[in-house]
């Protein structure tokens, strides 16, 4: 029976090895191998000696962190508000949160140009209200990239956080209230600690996804906001320097795996397993 089962999954295993594992191994090989010289760390020394690569890496980390914090600031109150709704209202709220998944990321990204452009809805409203004399430059800078990334990734934080919040037993909050604790104390001493593992796990997941974003920074950044994904596109398709791209990808892979390990640990803690 085991042999028959292996025969059924063998095509899938071959597909995964060929389509996923071999490209990763090839990438790792390019980062540590040079034709005619064999094993080398020269590509990583080149990264350390080239400040632009380090600046792009730091820029990617910083923008990803800001977008993650923006998601936390918006997503936590939103999930908490959804928890207090009735069953039918919860379904409507969840549908509205999930709705962006039904649209292409490309469409959602271009929609922000309509909203944040110089003649867009936001600038038109600000000028109509007399708050500004001219349009504010929201696009083609870090502000536009951060807004676009936060918008795309918000459901990845809200949905798991909401799932963790609705599992909290209301009797715990009622018990704290019966002992004389004010609402603020109940929130910070009882409610928030119970949601913190899910919040941290969701924030790490959002941060991981931010690191590899390409479409949104490329469109809303207008080529003026360098991030790792855009740098890799340049190194692979324009210069090209595959070895440098592989070295950068390896570093990004290691950072992502470390963050993912932390995410899995927090996720297991949040689910109580």
What does this structure look like?
Strand 1 (33-34) and strand 2 (38-39) form a beta hairpin. This protein is 78% helix and 1% strand. The longest helix is centred in the first third of the chain and has 33 residues, at 51-83. The chain has 273 residues and is an all-alpha fold. It contains 12 helices and 2 strands; from the N terminus they run αββααααααααααα. The protein has a single domain (56-271), classed as Orthogonal Bundle (MetI-like fold), CATH 1.10.3720.
Give the helix/strand layout.
Layout: H1 2-32, E1 33-34, E2 38-39, H2 42-49, H3 51-83, H4 87-98, H5 105-116, H6 121-128, H7 142-166, H8 170-178, H9 183-211, H10 215-220, H11 228-237, H12 242-271
Antiparallel strand pairs: 1-2
Helix pairs in contact: 1-12, 2-12, 3-7, 3-9, 7-9, 8-9, 9-12, 11-12
């Amino acid at each position: 029976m085991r042999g028959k089962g292996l025969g059924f999954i063998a095509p899938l295993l071959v597909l995964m090895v060929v389509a996923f594992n071999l490209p990763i191994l090839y990438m790792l090989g390019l980062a540590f191998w040079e034709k005619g010289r064999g094993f080398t760390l020269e590509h990583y020394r080149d990264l350390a000696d080239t400040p632009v690569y380090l600046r792009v890496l730091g820029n990617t980390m910083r923008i990803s962190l800001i977008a993650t914090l923006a998601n936390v600031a918006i997503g936590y109150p939103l999930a908490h508000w959804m928890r207090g709704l009735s069953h039918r209202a919860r379904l409507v709220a969840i549908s509205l949160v999930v709705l962006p998944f039904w649209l292409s990321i490309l469409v959602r990204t271009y929609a922000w140009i309509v909203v944040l452009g110089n003649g867009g809805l936001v600038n038109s409203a600000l000028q109509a209200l007399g708050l500004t004399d001219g349009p504010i430059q929201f696009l083609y800078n870090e502000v536009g990239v951060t807004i676009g990334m936060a918008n795309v990734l918000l459901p990845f934080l809200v949905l798991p956080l909401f799932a963790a919040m609705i599992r909290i037993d209301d009797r715990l909050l009622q018990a704290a209230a019966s002992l004389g604790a004010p609402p603020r104390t109940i929130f910070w001493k009882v409610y928030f600690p119970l949601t913190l593992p899910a919040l941290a796990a969701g924030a790490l997941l959002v941060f991981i996804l931010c690191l590899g974003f390409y479409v949104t920074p490329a469109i809303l950044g207008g080529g003026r906001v360098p991030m790792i994904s855009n740098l890799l596109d340049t190194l692979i398709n324009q210069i090209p320097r595959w070895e440098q791209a592989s070295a950068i990808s390896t570093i990004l892979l290691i950072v992502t795996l470390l963050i993912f390990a932390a995410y899995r640990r927090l996720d297991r803690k949040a689910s109580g397993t």
